[in-house]
Design brief:
Layout lengths: L4 E4 L2 E4 L5 E5 L7 H13 L4 E5 L3 H13 L4 E4 L4 H10 L3 E4 L7 H14 L3 E6 L5 H7 L4 H17 L5 E6 L3 H14 L5 E2 L7 H17 L5 E3 L9
Parallel strand pairs: 3-4, 3-10, 4-5, 5-6, 6-7, 7-8, 9-10
Antiparallel strand pairs: 1-2
Amino acid sequence: MAKKQISAGGIKIGGGAPVTVQSMTNTKTEDVEATSAQIQRLCDAGCEIVRLAVPNKEAARAIASYKERFNIPIVADIHFDYKLAIESAEAGADKIRINPGNIGGEDRVKAVVNECRLKGIPIRIGVNGGSLEKELLAKYGGVTARALFESAMGHVRLLNKFDFDDICISAKASDVPLTVATYRMLAEETDYPLHLGVTEAGTEYAGTIKSAVGIGALLMEGIGDTIRVSLTAPPER
């Protein structure tokens, strides 16, 4: 397990803390009633961290409502628009998930980092096989463990450049052996907490098998600090 520890809404991740289980809602985040019902079912099932998609301003602002209703840490999932990461932080998000490679130039990453540092919010760097940088795909001839590792560490260096180190890393692929190889590399060469998962795992039956094998193999080796099983099924499953 990671030597470094971060805290998301009081939940410790890494540094010897128990492995936490998280899930992601699939309702529209701006629909507070529907999303609240789903968060409640997740809490009832024992989920410890909830991630919400934040595709627009309404979703970012809705985070404040969930913070009023629930004690569970809320993670804002951001793609492309750095302003939504800042709005989510202002609304009370406990953790921000970004792929620094798809939110624009360094100035935009710096703006997100500054807001997170100000509020003591950790950032999860999320890279996956479906959105690797073109130069890495060319360098390695496709999606490989080394390519995923290099992508993640490039983003880590960018956050470090702006004096930010409150970081968790995920580097997922839909291919189980590739995912396992990537996380082994990260565990060997970094001290950051690792968020485990197999992306686009599939239906409840097939996805459960892929996730159990991929996540289970890594946990057996002492790798991983928080996990999410991605299924085409209700989030509580």
